[in-house]
Amino acid sequence: MNYPSIQKEDPLVYEIIKREEQRQKEGIELIASENYVSKAVMEAMGSILTNKYSEGYPGKRYYGGNEIIDQAETLAINRAKELFDAEHVNVQPLSGSPANLAVYMGLLNPGDKVLGFSLDQGGHLSHGHPLNFSGKLYTIIPYFAEKDTEVINMDKVEEIALREKPKMILAGFSAYSRDMDWKRFRIIADKVGAYLFADIAHIAGLVAGKQLENPVPICDVVSTTTHKTLRGPRGAMIMCKEKFASAIDKAVFPGVQGGPHDHINAAKAIAYGEALKPDFQDYAKQIIKNARALSSALQVLGYRIVSGGTDNHLMLVDLFGSKQITGKEGEKCLEQVGISINKNMIPFDPRKPMDPSGIRLGTPALTTRGCTEADMKTVADLMHEALMNRTDENKLAAIKEKVKDFSLKFPVPGIE
Ligand SMILES: *Cc1c(COP(=O)(O)O)cnc(C)c1O
């Protein structure tokens, strides 16, 4: 990409952007929450829509001059409704965590009980981390995966719900590779009179691409980021049943946020438009095929995949359990050869969060670049070669060249 104005006005920032662009082109991106947006999405984010203030909602703003902005936000809302079969959509949340804060604020009072997936097994910070607003303001009761299967046992979830009588049940994750049983969550929530809130930040693109069951018609409220598998700008949205519309809208503004980011909301409209096209379903299907191929290829090389495989775009590798390499060592070694991953706790991890047993891998970014199953075998081989030679600087330098040669075969949509 050319940035002639930045180059002229601020060479320091220009230099940083160009170096990051090169890193993104020459590396293998396996971070499960990352992706590459289209040029159209990027252009909207860089547009003059950033100049406007528009506190409020379409037709009910606290600032004048919003008749055109209203059209952009309404377009994003209508496309999201179509994409997810939603009754009501709020596209203003600035990111996933503030979206979730708004959901808690809209439905609960401080101190209320929330049932959520244990953080060290795949839940998100905003699902009850003690330093996060969720853990500080609400009473969080965790549910867990089973020790032997590493899969959530819905009978146990029901048992905990019946015992604890939470006001809200939160279903969603950042590091879990199996399908969520939304219908069973609904039954359990109804039994105990709890709200059912799904956080589909990670899998929204797979739902929009019709490869995973859509929880929006089943749940009361669903939040998602827009920048992960959904492949839009950084941001989030909340979808809900009509009866929660007013509570959710008030919680977003004025509850949590001031003015919406209109340039980002226009980019959301573009991304939703892209996701409504038939080829987005091919992309979503390929993400899952690639995840399965990568998981199998790693298993053949002797790596243990948590729960034995994946139903979505991500997987957890028990690096310490299978190769006596810690997550931190693995992350550092792979970073040295240009393969981006993140260290991650595995269920019942005997190790600590700063140096856990596992690493998390995801295939959305590579799929966007056009990689298919055969390429996943190459990626697994490159990872293995690096990990097995992690103390040999010369070998790692040579592997980095191979990673670069591989990556440059696949153009990055927003860059080239
Ligand atoms: C990524 C993620 C979020 C938060 O997203 P941010 O935009 O980083 O605040 C929320 N929930 C889940 C499950 C996530 O994976």
Q: Could you characterize the architecture of this molecule?
A:
- By secondary structure, the chain is of the alpha/beta class.
- The chain has two domains: 141 residues, Alpha-Beta Complex (Aspartate Aminotransferase, domain 1), CATH 3.90.1150.10; 233 residues, Aspartate Aminotransferase, domain 2, CATH 3.40.640.10.
- The strands form four sheets. Strands 4-10-9-8-7-5-6 form a seven-stranded mixed beta sheet, with helices on both faces. Strands 11-12-15-14 form a four-stranded antiparallel beta sheet. Strands 1-13 form a two-stranded parallel ribbon.
- Strand 8, helix 9 and strand 9 form a beta-alpha-beta unit.
- The mean pLDDT is 97.
- It binds pyridoxal-5'-phosphate.
- Pyridoxal-5'-phosphate binds next to helix 5.
- The site of pyridoxal-5'-phosphate has 15 residues, from helix 5.
